[in-house]
Sequence to fold (476 residues):
Amino acid sequence: MNTPEEPTFRESVDIMYNRAVALMDLSPGLEEKIRVCNATYTVRFGVRLRGELKTFTGYRSVHSEHMEPVKGGIRYATGVNQDEVEALAALMTYKCALVEAPFGGSKGGLCIDPREYDENELELITRRFAYELIKRDLINPSQNVPAPDMGTGEREMAWIADQYKRMNTTDINGTACVTGKPTNAGGIQGRTEATGRGVQYALQEFFRDADGVKKAGMSGTLDGKSVVVQGLGNVGYHAAKFLSEEDGCKIVGIIERDGALTDPNGLDVDAIRHWIAGHGGVATYPGATYVEDGASVLELDCDILIPAALEGVINRTNAGRVTAPLIIEAANGPVTAGADEILRGKGTVIIPDMYANAGGVTVSYFEWVKNLSHIRFGRMQRRQEEARHQLIIDELERLSSDSGIGWELSPNFKTKYLRGAGELELVRSGLDDTMRTAYQSMASVWHERGDVDDLRTAAYLVAISKVADSYRAKGL
Ligand code: GLU
Fold:
């Protein structure tokens, strides 16, 4: 994919950054300070597996420490390399700034195909990797807080948290050293679905922006829109599920490792996810048309394209053939800088990664706060809220009967109104608010500045100016 005219992922991020700073009034020194990655630590460690010593290579990159802790996932994939973690760490800085999560940007990775190891082996490897990072404060509740990413999930986060606590037995905030943990190990409800949920909220907000919808040459609401999703992992699955079940979207294409499935009448997302779990792929799925060349389905006629897998999948070679008027980058870096230029030329609207997939880190922020406050959200208020609502209902019913009007509140209304918000409702409400506010800050730059003609540049402008303000406040 990295042909001479196709920049690497990190170069792509730099190109996009440069496009934005060219429109800003930053001093050259500050411009450079924000662009560069502060540090990248490479570790090589051995683990004895199946009677042999196996060496693994891992990274933790810290892009910007204008706010601490720094934050970002740890991915397990064979393609992990320094260039990639640095690009991803930079995106984390901008992502956190854009959604006002008070963190600097970081990212980690381990070169490994997790499918080649069983659970016990993965635990050994994860604990050893975590040990190397913890002893250098590259995992620490006040300095560097990882989270899940591609190839990792709550199981790995639970091992990391436990490893940290074994090595820091008196740290009362130890649980906050990593987010994305299972709920029974200090996690928060709604974290697993958060990135996909954030994609849904982002699209809902986009369709409330009449000017944005017009710029994409679209009309109406999400209802009835056709969607192609690449990757039915955690992010793609939840986005597709919520959009089809709650917003009336039709999922007309799902692209996986071994090919794609299409159906103009809409695919059954849960059935396909289930099939993949049992059969290792989509090729034999009986209920849809199978397309062996999965990547060609990125070019399928649809309203919304959701790349939710790898970086660089929309590049110079296929961008010209992508027909969707709206792309939402659920993955990090799925559109190369070259493809971005081609798509912008065609008028395609791209909702950029740093915003589109920020739901994950947003709910990570809530989890971190929950861990530091040592109390579940809603625990103090929920029943009090219910009691106050009950007072209003009782009074309304008394007035209605005393006055002889005889109104009756519907049981459905009463149940909904009486229910105080628990953790999941509060997490979703905080996420929705975050996604709406961040969209509006980007969209106002997009619509109001004559020199900004795309959402990505707008997102960079908002994010960079927030990072710059923090550095200036520190006197840099
Ligand atoms: N790995 C996710 C991302 O790329 C989540 C990071 C986090 O929650 O810290 O945004």
